[in-house]
Amino acid sequence: MIEIRGLTKRFGSLPVLSGIDLDIAPGERIVVIGPSGTGKSTLLRCINFLDRPDAGTIRIGDLQVDAAKASRAEILALRRRTGFVFQTYALFANRTAQGNIAEALLTVRRLPRAEALARADAILRDIGLSDKADAYPAALSGGQQQRVGIGRALALDAPLLLFDEPTSALDPEWVGEVLDLMRRIAEARQTMLIVTHEMQFAREIADRVLFMEGGRIVEQGPPSRIFDAPQDPRTREFLRRVR
Amino acid sequence: MGALDLDYMLGLVPVLLRYLPLTLGMAAAAMVLALILAVILAVVRVLRLPLLDPLVQLFVSFFRGTPLLVQLFLFYYGLPQLVPAFAAITGVQAAIAGLTLHFAAYMAESLRGAILGVDRSQWEATQAIGMTQGQALRRIILPQAARIAAPSLLNSFIDMIKGTSLAFTLGVTEMMGAAQKEAAGSFRYFEAFLLVAVIYWVVTEALAALQRRLEIRLNRAFAR
């Protein structure tokens, strides 16, 4: 069980998250939608402290972190329980595809090298990139890079995967392969929190859709309700514009 | 007199080359030490470590702001007056120490700029997978910074090789000192010093060629 309570973040005097409460059940797949600049990415980045929240608590399993007094060790522990997929992939430029995936296993999990590489190879097979094991990120297409990015996030078997607009930076031709991979991960009932503008994808895989605006969760529910019968006028207005 | 005495110069080549290992040895030792020190100084500055950061800034300011020759004289001739234990160090040791501190200051600034030049997303990715700051620096950030800083670090090494000639002023008989002694006997100063210049030139050009090859190699992972 994952519990987020009162998560708050300001940039200077600008409130970006205004006390977000969110429970995520094991295996639940949540998609966050909403206009740009409404705190969707910040919500994800605050959950693993890439952006430090100003207030609120995050509980993942038996680990509870209070933003107001989180220690360095607690933040590390929290990050090790979440996988994060970046919009811009952010692959380690000095590591091969295999090396990117193995990095956390070597440094964080401290697995013996042979074991870490074997595990990375298994993930490369899963994401369909065994033939690119030795390729550096610069030699991979956008779609391939993002699949490695997802593979890297999978490596630690984290209880929660966070996807921050994983297809937004991709050329249209690569979006399909990344969504296909995410669909497969979703089918395995991996707990996921996904920020995306891919509405069709959200409808297919989400157990629950959150609509955010102005740093708040305005409306949430199963995709059929959010997409077909939204209650809040802001949700209706947003969906009308993106369709 | 007047004309260049080529035969004399050629005869002097093996004499001066005998001191080349000393020159290169001093430069190599100082380079290794300066690199280690520079990495530490750069990391202190990038992480803005409290207490240490202002000290490092002072260090860098002093060693970049004063001439190498003055620094060498301060260590070798000045310090033993204050701290008698320093009287035991040799000219070679003092030269290596002086070169190390002087060039570490320059190299720390190059490295600091290079670390800051590594894309922010690389830091974020290390954080996202739960790496510690130390692991991130050692495994991801510094290797990428090294690639950015490599040309300027190699320039520092070339400057350092040339800087070893100042060890002559600390009474060390290296190439410059040997040329001085030879010329004092033959009065062929031009030939002797020209030969010293040529040897330095050849060595630094060889390094520049190495530098070009190294840069190609370092860029390999980043080429499409």
TrEMBL record, chain A:
PROSITE patterns: ABC_TRANSPORTER_1 (PS00211), ABC_TRANSPORTER_2 (PS50893). Residues 2-239 form the ABC transporter domain. Keywords: ATP-binding, Nucleotide-binding, Transport. It comes from the Bacteria. GO terms for molecular function: ABC-type amino acid transporter activity; ATP binding; ATP hydrolysis activity. Belongs to the ABC transporter superfamily. This is Amino acid ABC transporter ATP-binding protein. It comes from Rubellimicrobium roseum.
From TrEMBL, chain B:
InterPro entries: AA_ABC_transptr_permease_3TM, ArtM/GltK/GlnP/TcyL/YhdX-like, MetI-like, MetI-like_sf. Residues 20-211 form the ABC transmembrane type-1 domain. It is found in: Cell inner membrane; Cell membrane. The chain crosses the membrane at residues 20-44, 56-79, 85-106, 148-172, 192-210. Keywords: Amino-acid transport, Cell membrane, Membrane, Transmembrane, Transmembrane helix, Transport. GO terms for cellular component: ATP-binding cassette (ABC) transporter complex. It is a multi-pass membrane protein. GO terms for molecular function: L-cystine transmembrane transporter activity. Belongs to the binding-protein-dependent transport system permease family. HisMQ subfamily. This is Amino acid ABC transporter permease. It comes from Rubellimicrobium roseum.
